[in-house]
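Workshop exercise sheet. Pairs work together: one partner reads the sequence aloud, the other fills in the structure field after running the prediction. Swap roles for the next sheet.
Pair: D.N. / O.F.
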Amino acid sequence: MDKLFNGNQIPKHWQETTLGKIISISSGNGLSKSNRNDDGEFLVYGGNGITGKHCEFLFEEEKLIIGRVGVHCGNAYITKPKSWVTDNAFVVSFDEKKIGKRFLLEMIKYLNLNKYSSSTAQPVISQGKIYPINISLPPLSEQQLIVSKIEELLSDLENGKQQLQTAQQQLKIYRQSLLKWAFEGKLTNKNVKDRELPKGWKIVELKDVALKITDGEHFRPQTQKCGIPFLSAKDVKNEGVSFDEPLYISEETAKKAIQRCDPRRGDILIVSRGATVGRMCIVNTDKQFCLLGSVILIKVNKTINSKLLNYILKSPIANQKMINVSGATAQQAIYLRDIKNISIPLPSLEEQQLIIEELESKLTVCDKIEETISQSLLKAETYCKNRNMLQ
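Structure field:
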């Protein structure tokens, strides 16, 4: 793009000129919100793009406009036919025999006119800032080829973005499959038949592998600015508990709360109601904290590794069981009386460790792939978002 618009290493037959010699700009026609009729069918454009609708239009044909006022001033847009352009935007006039509308749009986007705006609380750009800008102008036939190439690259970008999103979804399915296979015995027992547990495995209820299954305080105690962190569902993240935005209670209040629910490193926490019902983590801190009743606490006994139980409860079968017992109410919830009776597979302690190692190895690879996909998607989406802001 640098070579196209800024005069560096351009072909000799391209014209070096200024914007003021190829375009003229004038303000649109003022239309206040109180005078606008949003029940109308015609789009209204302002300094930041589409601002509403109106029952009348100013221009029969589509127009190239530049935002004049607002945080996005300097951005270029092509309006729909039969539109209204307010005086917060410039309407651009030019000779279409010398410069194509789409090429001019791409050029203005590249030039980033916003940097020429006044640095005030309400940024404004003027003709006097726009007209002197130097540009390099190819012949009309080459302009059309350049626009075609840009559209081709954008199409490739969109296709790549869709492929990344597909890969992201497939990775999510693969993660769930790994958990499912693990607790069918297929990760550590290659000859396991469908619907048949490996030798030495047994089915138990959750209460059989737990020292305690409880939840936090059912009544929110008086909070204060500092003290013992008092965490709720929002503080239970997939990677562990978060102390970013906790409430606090006094030490005296905490002592009473801990008699019922005393979270410690290695315990499992499960969100029991709300939008994130079923989300869970292993306590990964030695810091003392208390819990609100929207979180269930599970302390495991010596028959099971807490990492394994965490994986089991995240697996599709067990997770679906928790959701099913939560009931079809307006707000889903997991109740202590129900979760205690959920059945789970229980391999030997030795095999539990093998399953954990196998899962962590494969899930670590998934994490790295997920990170790569997420970074690539972020770059693509940021570029697309920036372009969308300019049209």
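Discussion prompt: Residues 202-346 form a domain with the Adenine-n6-DNA-methyltransferase TaqI; Chain A, domain 2 fold (CATH 3.90.220.20). What would you look at next?
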